[in-house]
Design goal:
By secondary structure, the protein is α/β, with parallel strands linked by helices. It has 6 helices and 7 strands. The chain has a 5-stranded parallel β-sheet, sandwiched between helices. Strands 1-2 form a two-stranded antiparallel sheet. Strand 1 and strand 2 form a beta hairpin. Helix 2 runs parallel beside helix 3.
Length: 176
């Protein structure tokens, strides 16, 4: 049964748009875990893509309110996918979270507002999901810029600049 795009506001009875979360992840078990988490958050819609190419298409079609990106995708690195998504005006300010099992200590701070390490703490993940979806878009964008530009954030996180990942081009015909 498809999840409706709108929900009824309990206070006013008006229909409101349900927040949409795009999760780009190629490992089926991780997808199942995230789908199970979203059963605890029926007010939000989860859309899943398994490759960077599918993720790009889904992002254009769905206009998500939050991006959850695995870093090791079969056709590209999650940071490369995020750069491509940021090139689309409608997705420039959508908060993005890296969801990964890889070591991120050497990852340079960038457009990711947070990094969720696998295996995830389910209670903490639900709390962070609630927090990110409850913030207005402008506030989320402002917070992302503030975190990325704060020198103390870079120093305290131990993150150092690293070379950009080797680009894996998407086929030209897949661009919107």
């Amino acid at each position: 049964m498809p999840i409706p795009l709108q929900q009824e506001d309990e206070r006013t009875g008006a229909l409101t748009r349900r927040p949409t979360v795009l999760y780009v992840e190629d490992h089926p078990v991780n997808v199942l875990v995230m789908q199970a988490l979203f059963t605890k958050r029926p007010h939000a819609r989860l859309v899943v893509a398994t490759t960077g190419e599918e993720g790009l298409r889904a992002a254009v079609a769905e206009q998500p309110d939050l991006l959850l990106l695995d870093l090791r995708l079969p056709d590209c690195h999650g940071t490369e996918l995020l750069q491509r998504l940021r090139g689309l005006p409608s997705l420039q300010h959508v908060p993005a979270v890296a969801v990964t099992a890889e070591d991120t200590r050497s990852m340079a701070p960038g457009d990711f507002v947070e990094i969720w390490h696998k295996p995830m703490d389910l209670h903490r993940t639900l709390a962070r999901l609630d927090s990110l979806l409850d913030q207005p878009t402008a506030v989320r964008a402002q917070a992302r810029r503030a975190v990325a530009s704060t020198p103390s954030h870079r120093a305290s996180s131990g993150m150092r600049a690293r070379p950009a990942p080797h680009p894996i081009p998407f086929p030209a015909e897949t661009w919107p």
